[in-house]
Amino acid sequence: MTTDTRVILICSGKGGVGKTTLTANLGISLARQGFKTAVLDADFGLRNLDLLLGLENRIVYTAQEVLEEECRLDQALVKHKQESNLSLLPAGNPRMLDWLKPDDMKCIVNMLSEQFNYVLIDCPAGVEDGFKNAMAASQEAIVVTNPEVSAVRDADRVIGLLNTNAIKPVQLVLNRVRPKMMASQEMLSITDVTDILALPLLGLVLEDEQVIVSTNRGEPLTLNSVNSPAAKCYLNIAKRLQGEDIPLIDPVEESAGFGAKFRKLMQTKIF
Amino acid sequence: MISKPKIIIVNLSDTEYKNWKSFLKNELKNIQSYHLAIDLGDLDLNCKFISEIIDISNMYDCEINSFYSTSVKTMVSCHSLGYTANFIRKKSLNNTQIPNNNSDFSKTHFHQGTVRSGEYIDSPGDLLILGDVNPGAVVRAEGDVIIWGRLLGIAHAGSKGNSKAKVSAIQLRPVQLRIANKVARGPQEKPQPSLVEEAKIDSGKIVITPLENF
């Protein structure tokens, strides 16, 4: 098997926390930095990674046809319009719900590893077969969670399962952080979450309305709008994934606004 | 080239309790290695005792790498002082032999690491956990449950009806506590930081008290 390809599972347990959005944006960011990146939509029952990337109308074949040798792998891979380093492979057809086995998934990922630097697997919600298939093929994992009790609980369950399957390293992304709510302690704080999950934090993603706009347009945030706060967060996560040391943003400071920042600056100069 | 430091196991468990200091000093005089592993056998030792051992070793310029013990209390004491403690199930240990976990089966169960949501641990004897028990996890033992970490999930001590069983943790904030056939909800108020607490049955009710002589 090949070697320095990183196969990363992006999972959460709970649905709707931002796995697919993270996969799409991370894929674009990594491709931008010159890495050949494949995103594999393992959520074939309810696939929508293609929607986020704006590639829905270009899908002809899926991994299923590749495995049945009805087409070649490069026929099934959908290249992104603007980022030629990024390719999408949908795992299967929504109509065929139970054809995939862990071994099939491994086979697909091995094929992808020969061509790509990064393989990002967008995992379905839940901890059933879809998750187990996706997990079987992965080496490392990113767990996405929101600062909510239910999302943290599900993430904890998933981390337990990842640990028993010897997937290492497992890193954490805290999505949809609202600095104001965190500052006023209406929301779980970062330490609340990291205390329970006991994982290294790969990054925070701030709540951003632009995410919804970009999802509906089929253009991931990292593609164009570099000024959006969430896009910056995604770019930082992509950089940290390669071992760059970029400090985490402090949500309390983010919420403080210009006046408070200015006062703080004044104080640091005086004392 | 410097060879890798050898680890020597000093066995304290067979010595008479009162003479242990001179015994340890004698052993250390004869030792060439500076890295020690100390076997404490089945002695129940508190932090004070362990730190005395550490002080004596430091006097002889020896560094303790790890402790071995069959006692749950000793394990917790060693960990609280920041040392690795290895749980062994064999009663006696030769000076040179590497501890073998597969010998004599002991009923005490030992778990290291976080117990996460959805996980379940059951022990036919006591249960010692070095790590947190997260919400959604269930830990159960026929004897006591001791958690060197936070208890945020469900703990059940005395699962076969032993009403003398206890649950103790550094932060006792369970969703639910069960001892023998009694069930209680966890306390609602925030606990004081760094206070070891213990839950047991007192006149038919589960009560939580601070644990002092730990």
Polypeptide structure, described:
The complex is a heterodimer of chains A (271) and B (214). With 271 residues, chain A is of the alpha/beta class. Chain A has one domain (6-270): Rossmann fold (3-Layer(aba) Sandwich). In chain A, 44% of the residues lie in helices and 16% in strands. Chain A has helices at 19-32, 49-53, 63-67, 73-76, 102-113, 129-136, 149-164, 179-183, 190-197, 210-217, 229-241, 251-270, and strands at 6-11, 37-41, 78-79, 86-90, 118-122, 140-145, 170-177, 201-206. An 8-stranded mixed beta sheet of chain A has the order 3-4-2-5-1-6-7-8, with helices on both faces. In chain A, helix 7 links the parallel strand 6 and strand 7. Chain B is of the alpha/beta class and 214 residues long. Chain B is built from 3 helices and 15 strands. Chain B has helices spanning 20-29, 47-59, 72-80, and strands at residues 7-11, 35-39, 63-69, 84-87, 109-112, 120-123, 127-130, 138-141, 145-151, 154-157, 167-172, 176-179, 182-185, 197-202, 205-210. In chain B, 36% of the residues are buried. Mean pLDDT of chain B is 80; it is low at 90-105. Chains A and B meet through helix 7 of A and loops of B.
Describe the structure concisely.
The complex is a heterodimer of chains A (271) and B (214). Chain A has 271 residues and is α/β, with parallel strands linked by helices. Chain A has one domain: P-loop containing nucleotide triphosphate hydrolases (Rossmann fold, 3-Layer(aba) Sandwich), CATH 3.40.50.
Number of helices of chain A: 12
The CATH architecture category of chain A equals 3-Layer(aba) Sandwich
Structural category of chain A: alpha/beta
Radius of gyration of chain A: 19 Å
Number of strands of chain B: 15
- Helicity level of chain B, as a percent range? 10-25%
- How many helix segments of chain B? 3
Whole-number count of domains of chain B: 2
What is the subunit arrangement here?
heterodimer
Low-pLDDT ranges of chain A: none
Order of helices and strands of chain B: EHEHEHEEEEEEEEEEEE
- Secondary-structure element string of chain A: EHEHHHEEHEHEHEHHEHHH
> Largest interface: which pair?
A-B, 10 and 10 residues
* Fourth CATH level, the homologous superfamily of chain A: P-loop containing nucleotide triphosphate hydrolases
Strand order of the largest sheet of chain B: 5-7-9-11-14-15
Strand content of chain B: 25-35%
What's the structural domain tally of chain A? 1
If you average the pLDDT of chain B, what whole number results?
A: 80
